[in-house]
TrEMBL record:
UniProt KW keywords: Glycosyltransferase, Membrane, Transferase, Transmembrane, Transmembrane helix
DNA repair listed as a keyword: no
Signal peptide range in chain numbering: none
SUPFAM superfamilies with a match to the protein in the record: Nucleotide-diphospho-sugar transferases (SSF53448)
InterPro entries linked to this entry: Nucleotide-diphossugar_trans
Organismal lineage: Archaea, Methanobacteriati, Methanobacteriota, Stenosarchaea group, Halobacteria
Protein name: Glycosyltransferase
């Protein structure tokens, strides 16, 4: 596969740091990385504070009250609060099932359910057993393990021996990546429908049947929802981060552009659609993010099925949480690099894909700058506007948690939703760090978070 990122070189300074070899070169790269990260964060916070203190004049065209002079931080706070509240209402309505076709079939075309696994043998039973409990009958599970992962290979072999509908596949064709494992499984199966699930994913019994029903009605791909299990402090933060930054941020975007995420878990696709976009790209760190944009540019009909979510394990410690998010954002920067290199200015989907990807990367700067705006409002005695933002964030978080609790996807409501605002600056920091590392020190390494099963 031709790598178009070679057509668009990275900034000069990162390229220069790679001219130094050995330990000295590694030290220089790391130092440049940390210094750049600190400089970017400092600049964003400082600029956000200075910008937020600037007075702006607003002249409402429909109100005969003359110009209103406010500080920029107030405008930003009201705008961001409105976005959170409006997106949250759309999301809660979707999660509650308003307007969703609740259809499900129990038989139909053969579905190849692919479960790639790497060093997650303790969690493998979750996905395999839940898939075997599916109400959809014509389903075959293929567990794809890496050649150097003895524990997963052994457990996959045991599951294959115990269940006739489970096969074990050793990823000898494209070893070393989740994308390669999925692609290999898709190549060796002939099922007209391909589904992908994570090893730690507990799949709802009606999800596959519900997704196949959507495919028979014309969809090319059906993306399900995954709910991190909030059974600890870090896990709870991961749950609300998923709500506020992964799901909520896509609501209005999807309505305006038609863009839908097509991930590499909880997803069911027509084989023809999978092959049309060439499968997942093994060169991409976040293969699903890249895959979603290629599906969008190919004009695939993507639908979301929220009524039958899967539950997944969240990161269990701060190190894993940080490592996962940093890896994701490094991958996002890689995808942005490729989208920029492969931009087709005369094709609107290519332009929208680039703008959406850029928003996912540079939106982290906005999240960090909101900390400065909060400081400006606190310093100028406008705490009421801070309360508006908190009310929007906490209100949406509480509503979603309540819907999930009523649906049986989480255990109760609890008080963890009070921590939800913390995810914005933390995720912003991880996002900046990931982007900086991609430009300076990332050399293709992957981060693996432990799964307990």
């Amino acid at each position: 596969m031709i790598d178009p990122t070679r057509w668009f070189e990275l900034p000069v300074v990162p390229r220069l740091t790679r001219r130094f070899d050995g330990r000295v070169g590694e030290w220089i790269r790391r130092l440049t990385d940390e210094a750049t990260f600190a400089a970017v964060v400092t600049a964003v916070v400082a600029f956000g504070y200075l910008r937020g203190s600037v007075s702006v004049s607003i002249d409402p065209p429909l109100l005969a009250v003359g110009a209103i002079v406010v500080i920029e931080a107030a405008v930003s706070m009201v705008s961001f609060s409105g976005f959170v509240a409006l997106s949250g209402l759309v999301m809660v309505a979707e999660l509650a099932g308003f307007g969703e076709r609740d259809v499900e079939v129990t038989d139909g075309p053969r579905v190849a359910a692919v479960v790639p696994v790497y060093r997650d043998a303790p969690a493998l039973d979750r996905s395999v057993e839940s898939l075997l409990d599916s109400r959809y009958a014509n389903l075959q599970v293929t567990v794809v393990a890496e050649p150097d992962d003895d524990a997963s290979l052994a457990r996959a072999a045991e599951l294959a021996d115990e269940h006739a509908r489970v096969d074990r596949l050793v990823n000898t064709r494209y070893p070393g990546s989740k994308a390669g494992a999925v692609n290999y499984a898709a190549e060796v199966t002939e099922a007209p429908v391909v589904a992908v699930f994570d090893a730690d994913e507990r799949v709802d019994p009606g999800f596959v049947g519900g997704a196949v029903a959507r495919l028979t009605e014309g969809a090319d791909a059906v993306q399900g929802r995954t709910v991190p299990e909030p059974d600890g402090l870090v896990e709870t933060l991961a749950y609300y981060e998923s709500v506020l930054l992964n799901e909520l941020s896509h609501r209005l975007l999807g309505l305006l552009t038609g863009f839908r995420m097509v991930s590499s878990r909880a997803v069911v696709l027509r084989r023809s659609a999978f092959e049309r976009v060439g499968g997942y790209d093994t060169a991409m760190l976040t293969e699903d993010f890249d895959f979603a944009f290629r599906c969008f540019e190919a004009d695939l009909a993507v639908e979301e099925l929220f009524s039958r979510p899967s539950t997944i394990e969240a990161a269990h410690c701060g190190r894993d949480w940080w490592g996962q998010r940093k890896r994701w954002m490094t991958g996002y920067a890689q995808v942005l690099h490729r989208r920029l290199a492969g931009l087709r200015p005369l094709e609107w989907r290519s332009v929208v894909a680039l703008a959406t990807c850029a928003g996912a990367v540079f939106g982290n700067l906005l999240l960090l700058s909101m900390v400065s705006k909060v400081a400006v409002l606190a310093a100028t005695g406008r705490e009421a506007l801070i309360a508006v933002l908190l009310a929007a964030v906490l209100g949406v978080s509480l509503l979603v948690r309540t819907v999930d609790a009523v649906g049986g996807h989480v255990d109760g409501v609890g008080v963890g939703w009070l921590l939800a605002p913390v995810v914005f600056p933390l995720y912003g920091l991880a996002g900046v760090k990931g982007a900086v590392e991609y430009a300076i020190t990332w050399d293709g390494e992957w981060f693996h978070a432990s799964k307990e099963g």
